[in-house]
Amino acid sequence: MIIYLCRHGQTTGDIEDRYGGDYEDHLTDLGKIQAEELARKLQNRRIQKIFTSSRIRAQETAKIISDILKVDVEIVHDLRERNHYGILTGLIKSHAKKEHPDLVEKLSNHRIAITGAEDYESFGQRVTAGLEKITARDLDTVCIISHGGPIRFIFREIINFGEIDISDCAYAKLIWEYKRLSVLDLNGITKK
């Protein structure tokens, strides 16, 4: 199976500099343009189905791509972003730093769960389960719209690629064969 693993476009939370994660926000006008550009990059790739996170920003990205590629979309809740920010979720980062400097400091370690956050192990199990649901399907080529957190987890823990930087509407072309996920191509994703 060929998998185009994609991040959603720019969001209102991005430009407001908020802690996202479990925060529901929408694509900006630029985010919508990014999604259209991503759809054009994915044209003629024989994508049979789009799987998307249940978060609004991912669904909006998937809808734009679906409209252009004429492919059905299916929501996979396990692909949603991690609630890494707990009680800081939705706060503007500069305000959070002033009000909760100790919690903000802990966020630099992705394995630490602050108050109200989803722990890393549970998050990983959820993302892995979501990916397994998709790879078990009888499809040749799919597109997954998710978030920075799940994509970084997949690269770090499943592919053993290491840490990555990932831009809005970036994608990785992956192959799932012999119960193993490997990287074929990267667009907007770089190794740190």
3D structure, described in words:
With 192 residues, the protein is of the alpha/beta class. The protein has a single domain, classed as 3-Layer(aba) Sandwich (Rossmann fold). The protein is 38% helix and 23% strand. It has helices at residues 12-15, 29-42, 56-69, 93-99, 101-106, 120-135, 148-158; strands spanning 2-7, 49-52, 73-75, 141-146, 164-177, 180-191. It has a six-stranded mixed sheet with strand order 3-2-4-1-5-6. The model has no long low-confidence stretch (mean pLDDT 96).
Summarize the structure.
The protein is α/β, with parallel strands linked by helices. It contains 7 helices and 6 strands, in the order βααβαβαααβαββ.
Supply the key terms.
single chain; alpha/beta; Rossmann fold; 23% strand
CATH superfamily: Phosphoglycerate mutase-like
What is the CA-atom radius of gyration, in angstroms? 16 Å
Mean pLDDT: 96
CATH class: Alpha Beta
Helix segment tally: 7
CATH topology: Rossmann fold
N-C termini distance = 27 Å
Helical percent range?
Answer: 25-40%
How many separate domains make up the residues?
A: 1
- Could you describe the largest sheet, including whether it forms a barrel? 6 strands, mixed
Class by helix and strand content? alpha/beta
**Strand tally:** 6
**In terms of per-residue confidence, which ranges show pLDDT below 50 for 5 or more consecutive residues?**
none
What's the CATH architecture?
Answer: 3-Layer(aba) Sandwich
Compressed to H and E, one letter per element, the order equals EHHEHEHHHEHEE
Envelope shape: globular
- How much beta, percentage-wise? 15-25%
Main sheet: strand order: 3-2-4-1-5-6
